[in-house]
Design goal:
The chain is mainly alpha-helical and about 270 residues long. It is built from ten helices and no strands. The protein is about 75% helix and about 0% strand.
Length: about 270
């Protein structure tokens, strides 16, 4: 297969298929969803961190970059940039149990500890716009990884899919709270996810002539994965500190690390 075909297929895996998986997840009883979301988040943390630190950054540094400090600077600027995007509500990954955006309950299924107000239509529009921007960037990152190495692209797409599924569950929740039907929420989420493919294809054609820039895109990808894991997902896990929950969280984080580690090792 051509590199472009790989990019399109795995952009769909990272985008559309994640939406479909989240839609199937919503068919589960609310109590199951509430219990499973933290486990999915824990797994995603391990997948994101290992993809960033064991795959993306080593490839970026080993791609003939003359000054490694430039890669480090790119990661730093990426972290700050994603902080700003999140402030603009264009890069939200909230998975906290009391987060209205990503609460697993819909408008009729409130947690007994939290009393969410129905979300407004403008809030739903912000979710869709933010998702479209986020998915477009994911597509660019997936494309850059594939242009460097097919195996790296696969690992990057897997890490994207791992954190997209719990996020898409949250997106469905706020759309339902805004009065969307399940069919309409699914349709709009799929449309939003297609920007992953758009980002991937545009990146393929725009980055092709400037291959020297690809390592820096990989560094940005690493910074986005690190930011999501450390700034957004890990704080939510600290809400429960009992031994049983902590062991489950650590085990699932390690599972995410091992899946990406063995996928990367096996593909190589």
């Amino acid at each position: 297969m051509s590199t472009l075909t790989w990019i399109i297929i795995f952009s769909l895996v990272g985008g559309v298929l994640s939406v479909m998986a989240a839609a199937v997840f919503l068919l589960l009883p609310a109590l199951w969803r509430t219990r499973l979301i933290p486990h999915l988040v824990s797994f995603a943390i391990g997948a994101l961190l290992s993809a960033a630190l064991l795959a993306l950054l080593p490839h970026a540094i080993g791609a003939g970059v003359t000054d490694v400090h430039n890669i480090s600077l790119t990661v730093l600027m990426g972290l700050l940039g994603f902080f700003v995007l999140e402030k603009l509500v264009l890069w939200r990954h909230c998975h906290h149990s009391d987060c209205e955006v990503h609460a697993p309950e819909d408008i009729h299924e409130h947690h007994h500890h939290h009393h969410h107000q129905p979300a407004s239509v403008p809030a739903a529009n912000l979710v869709l716009i933010g998702d479209a921007v986020h998915n477009f960037v994911d597509g660019v990152l997936i494309a850059a990884a594939f242009m460097m190495d097919i195996e790296l692209g696969i690992v990057t797409a897997l890490a994207v899919a791992a954190h997209e599924i719990p996020q898409e569950v949250g997106d469905f929740a706020i759309l339902l709270q805004s009065g969307f039907s399940r069919a309409k929420a699914l349709a709009f989420n799929i449309l939003s996810s297609l920007t992953t493919v758009v980002g991937g294809v545009l990146a393929y054609y725009s980055l092709g002539p400037v291959q020297d820039f690809v390592p820096y895109i990989l560094a940005v990808a690493a910074s986005s994965f690190i930011y999501v894991a450390v700034a957004d997902l890990i704080p939510g896990l600290h809400q429960k500190v009992d031994l049983k929950t902590s062991v489950q969280q650590i085990s699932l984080i390690l599972a995410g690390v091992l899946v990406i580690y063995f996928a990367h090792s096996t593909l190589h």
